[in-house]
């Protein structure tokens, strides 16, 4: 079982990785999802987490599973 710290890091890393794959800046993503650039930066720095609903929206936008967004890669835990 993952610790809270591991879960937070998994989400943070997935958010950064997915945004970079799309070639978006934090400000561009913020505009697309109708959040502030500060919120996106805070998520990516692990200072806060997106709500479960927002994480689901981001997973759908990026074409990823919710498990992927929690840092769980194919074949098990990261």
Q: Could you please describe the fold and organization of this structure?
A:
Helix 2 packs across helix 3. The chain contains 5 helices and no strands. With 78 residues, it is mainly alpha-helical. It has a single domain, classed as 434 Repressor (Amino-terminal Domain) (Orthogonal Bundle). The chain has helices at residues 4-22, 26-33, 37-44, 52-62, 66-69.
Give short descriptive properties of this protein.
78 residues; mainly alpha; 434 Repressor (Amino-terminal Domain)
Distance N to C terminus: 11 Å
What coarse outline follows from CA principal-axis ratios?
A: globular
Helix share, percent = 55-70%
CATH superfamily: lambda repressor-like DNA-binding domains
Question: SSE order, as H and E?
Answer: HHHHH
Number of domains: 1
User: Could you state the oligomeric state of the chains shown?
Assistant: single chain
Please state roughly what percent of the residues sit in beta strands, choosing from under 5%, 5-15%, 15-25%, 25-35%, 35-45% or over 45%. Answer: under 5%
Supply Rg: 12 Å
Strand tally, please?
0
Classify the secondary structure makeup into a structural class. Answer: mainly alpha
CATH topology: 434 Repressor (Amino-terminal Domain)
**Biggest β-sheet, characterized?**
none
Mean pLDDT: 92
Tally of alpha and pi helices:
5
CATH architecture: Orthogonal Bundle
Q: In CATH, what is the class?
A: Mainly Alpha
Low-confidence stretches: none
In short:
The chain is mainly alpha-helical and about 80 residues long. The chain is built from 5 helices and no strands. The protein has helices spanning about 5-20, 25-35, 35-45, 50-60, 65-70.
